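Late entry, written up from scratch paper. The run itself happened at the end of the previous shift, but nothing got recorded in the book at the time, so transcribing now.
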Amino acid sequence: MIQTASVGKKPVKRRIKDPAGDKVLYGIVHVLMIVLLIVTLYPLIYVISASFSSPQAVSTGQVVLWPVDFSLRGYQEVFDYKVVWIGYENTLFYTVVGTLVNVVMTLCAAFALSKKTLPGRSFFTFLFTFTMLFSAGIVPTYLNLKDLGIVNTRWALILPGAISVYNMIVTRTFIQNIPNELSEAAAIDGCSDFKYFTAILLPLSKAVISVISLYYAVSHWNSYFNAMIYLSDRDMFPLQLFLRDILVMNTIDASSIMDPEEAQAMEGMRDLLKYAMIVVSTVPILMVYPFIQKYFAKGVMVGSVKG
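Output as recorded:
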């Protein structure tokens, strides 16, 4: 441990020995973190390595850490299925447009509920919170969307989940932690609530906006259940549904195949496609995280502390 002390006008650094108990604690913490890192990274490394291996190596369990019999056959099979590109296009649309709608709705609701002068503020907060505990269910939701005329349209995957109450509460708490004197000073200068929201509040909320944007984007990217229920036109299917179709098409009952080698080959191909599809559907959304990493920790911590 290094401690800085001032001697005259010049700072002097002195090294203070850590007690033996602290060294043991640090050692235990480091060991636990290394174990946690290995437990977290190994499945990811295994999936990537298996996706670049041959079907025989995957089915016989030869893949442990690195690819065995390097092969791109899994990715060739996935991308040869032409509708995968349609799925990518649709998923990008749902992710970008859906996230934009989510963030706008969340920020507007959070800003309004952060105002203590809002009439009925407690009542509206209760209504939002109530939806976290109780929901209508699949059938009433489907009938409601059908009456609105948005079943089998792109909006069926965007509007029903336009706002997450949890993200709204985190964003509201973040906004409440911004000094109220800033709003009062802006009001004195003749700044309207809308201008204060767009010109002052939004630039100060980059951290929490980045966090909720990531949450919403990941949710849209991985969503497939709502598409199975509300969509029947394959031209609007997201990527996840097409990948599921590929896996189902390559699932064959091994008992119907008399040749054991052929059955093992089909099983290996099915496993290889599974790993390739995991990589294909995961890598694009993972590439977004490094760009907002610097805001992530701040947004989560500040937005989670009650102000």
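The radius of gyration is 26 Å.
(Scratch paper discarded after transcription.)
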